């Protein structure tokens, strides 16, 4: 077998991260994910609020949007987001592709329009070969933009976490305390809602099942989308994978401590006051759900073309 | 020679980008570079305005800062920034390390304080091992933060650009038009100011040497720092490496087209009207200064500790 000497290979500057093995659509999606030109201001990208350096969230109660507007709800993680019943806290998008269009055109988030996003990306000559590779032609459409971002998001998985290794038979993958936490989590049926491979994201449940949740956040959850009174305060159950990284917690981001969040869940959902030991055990177990974060190579974005509109962050007329 | 089959190597998930070969201080600097917790809001990182996906700049006239404030001056590129006479347009910092502290504590940029930055980073347990590896102890000081960021910035070089290959003897590295552009650039002594390995960054020169530069930007350049009248409108000569990526141009970011920038330079600095052909040639040559951009692996940032203050982007009291 002919082979380049490894010593020589280490000098080669081509990244060997998973990014190097991605499909053309995923590669284009990774570029668009980091491209602030998808926002009105030219300053905010998907990664601004779903930061892949910090668990796919911004670790803020609610996000900073266009003109420094305060976002309406806590930014959910993009990690492992594919296999959920729906997207957004209220489930108003059924797929990642459908979801991806939301923040781009939300006036409190990226503040762009379909037309602006397509015009800007279409005006950048360096994007053309990537669209051709991904879709066969270099035509830029909003659906192609969101399809690429969705394809990239599907690569953002964290399968190899300690509890997964434990469940596969490695008894030493987690501690005794973490095992106790898992037993407690099962015993009190937290798994009823936090179910499936992501320990959540599979159903809509009432925030405050047995006791009202006090919050200043105006969101009514699922009811904001369905307009049905019975959906008031029903939210998509958050994913527990990487929960250690995705603070602050709940749809309003009101709670930044994991023990506090577990305590409140016990009281509001189970009518149960967990003991400090039980809380410590469950928190220890939750930390065994933190997986190896995706290896992301920062994309090199193509420069503006002669017709690319220059973003004006402070311009109010847009 | 024993050698792992290349096919096997492609399956290895460890990144092989330069990031993998960095020193402990550079690694820590790369983490801090991308960490928005160095800003008051928890939303702005070094990379927000010196985006390594877009030539080390934000491609805005002036930058978006804390509370969406408009920055005072165009964000200069961080690429190849080490070997300059000084840092900032007015040269008020003599080293990258000294420069790095500026934006973190500038109320119009990241809006933090030395105390806040140190308190936040010191409160994050996951940073401790990186400080220990880089500095011997896990003590967090502002100097260690800026020293690490400076060390990382020194890795952000783009040596392998077509004109460099041409100068090393590869006559086919650039086109006939690019060679004509270089000849024109030399003939009219643009190299007097755009000198050195970066084609700039080596001196302070008057913007508008032979004709006043009209701008609404209030900056007086070097005079803002020295308070000397004779330094009015003297700015550090911008680096031309990667100029194709670092638009918009000049300290006020007023010009987004490279041909327009070349035309204006001829008129304001040389009292010369370049012909359209000369401008096209020079622009073609300038594009041969675009180097291979640094391969950056996005860092995985450690989560907050129990004492880490949660950022409040909209809180005015800070």
Describe the structure.
2 copies of one chain form a homodimer. Chain A has 2 domains: 6-12 and 160-287, Cytochrome c-like domain (Cytochrome Bc1 Complex, Chain D, domain 2, Orthogonal Bundle), CATH 1.10.760.10; 24-153, Cytochrome c-like domain (Cytochrome Bc1 Complex, Chain D, domain 2), CATH 1.10.760.10. The radius of gyration of chain A is 21 Å and the shape is globular. Chain A has helices at 6-11, 24-33, 46-49, 96-105, 114-122, 128-135, 142-153, 162-167, 176-187, 222-226, 258-270, 276-286, and strands at 204-206, 234-236. Chain A is mostly helical. Helix content of chain A is 33%, strand content 2%. In chain A, α2 (24-33) crosses α6 and α4 crosses α7 (142-153). Chain A has a two-stranded antiparallel sheet. The longest helix of chain A has 13 residues, at 258-270. At the A-B interface, α1 of A face loops of B. Chains A, B: It is found in: Periplasm. Chains A, B: Heme c 2 binds at residues 190, 193-194, 265. Chains A, B: Keywords: Electron transport, Heme, Iron, Metal-binding, Oxidoreductase, Periplasm, Peroxidase, Signal, Transport. Chains A, B: Its cofactor is heme.
